[in-house]
Amino acid sequence: MAIKQISEHEFYKNNIQKNPMAFVLGEEKAWFIDDDKNLLGTIILDKIDKDWSFVILGKDQDNQFRAVDVEASMLSLENAKDTLLVRMTQYEQDDEKVENLYSNEEIESPSILLTDVNDEIKKYLNKHPEKLHELTSRKFEELVASILEDLGFDVTLTKQTRDGGTDIIASIRNALTSFLILVECKKYSPENKVDVGIIREVVGVQTFKNPSKSIIVTTSTFTKDAIKEASQLKDKLDLKDYENLKDWLSKY
Question: How far apart are the first and last CA of the chain?
Fold first, then answer.
């Protein structure tokens, strides 16, 4: 088995959902596929900072390719290509991992791991928001998921593995519309701001999973560059920081 480079035309002959907002920040420069045609990869040049990223896509149960791995802020095309090929080879060598890269069951399954985050905990965090920084990363994800559930979303936490920029899948479906949000949670200390690299990773995932919106939630704040880059996506990407979390918790 091997990974080979292909043309853009060959790449997009596959069943891929692509968000046109991807062209705002990046330009695809190289495309790859594995022998079994279960994995795709593309290398992207950032139009603003001129650094490099890649997105790896896996085939789901509906034979549609969706983003499963993203890497951002690499210095050269060669570095991006080398890292992409290593990562795709690792996926390819683990057949079971390839088969389960992205399962629709995750979106349709009921909420999980929310039992320990009750209203009393949220009331306590409302009074003591500084305690958010003492949560584990997973408990922070559970907290955000629970808040979204209270807001009326059907919520699923993804597995505790490298998930391609998605910790929470939140959706609202009714007779008139369907609204899907992908949420990335960053439980950072106050002095550790979320940088532009995280924005690009989430944008890469949004490009190929094509949700209605993506949200990045952090216990910290965002750098000026991150805010500037996110602003170019307008209503497709929201940034929620420590102050926003305090506002959410004030409802309890």
Answer: 54
